[in-house]
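Can't attach files on this board, so I'm pasting raw text. These are the components:
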Amino acid sequence: MSKNELVILDCWASPFCMRVKIALAEKGLDYEERAEDLFGGKSDLLLTSNPIYKKVPVFLHDGKPLCESSVIVSYIDETWPAPALLPSTPYERSQARFWADYIDKKAFGYVDILAIPITSWFLASEKFGNFKVEAECPKLSAWIKRCMEKETVAKVIPDPEKIYEFVVNLRKMFGIA
Ligand SMILES: N[C@@H](CCC(=O)N[C@@H](CS)C(=O)NCC(=O)O)C(=O)O
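---
Top answer:
C-alpha cells for the assembled complex are below.
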C-alpha cells in the first residue's frame, strides 16, 4: 500500500529541481526537500539513486527513485492525474512535448513547468551578458510574467537576485574573473 512519501533531492538554485517542485505544487502534494551539496559532497542517497548522472533532482516516491526532471514531471502527471498537466490525447501530448510555442498558446501545463525554472537564471545571464531578455524577446518576457502570477510558480522560483549572487560565488569558486 502506497504511503505517498514524497522526497526530492534538491538544490534550491536548480531549474530542473524547480520543475519538479512546481509540478508537485500544481498537484497540491506535500513533499520533503533534502538539500544536496553538489560541490562539497553529494549524499550516498543521491549517488545510489542516480548512479548514471549523479545529478539532482532525484524524486523518491515511497523510497523508489526517479531521475531526470522531465521524466519525473511526466511520472507525477501520470500518478496524480488531476489537474492534468498534459493534454488527453497522444497526438496533443506529442505536440505539447514538441512545440516550444505551445508555451504561448495553451493553458499552463507540462511545457510551462519544464521551461519556467530556467528563466530564474536570466537575470544572471543578462548581467554577465549585457543584454535584456525583455528587449530581445518581448513575447518570452510576457510569458514569464504570466507564469509568475501563478502562486504555484511564484512560491518555488527563487528571487533572480539570489541566483545572480549564487553565480557570482560559483565564478569565484571556479576562478572565473
Ligand atoms: N537533465 C537533467 C539535468 C539535471 C542537472 O543538470 N542538475 C544539476 C543541477 S542544476 C546537477 O545536479 N549538477 C551536479 C553535477 O553535475 O555534478 C534534468 O533535467 O533533471
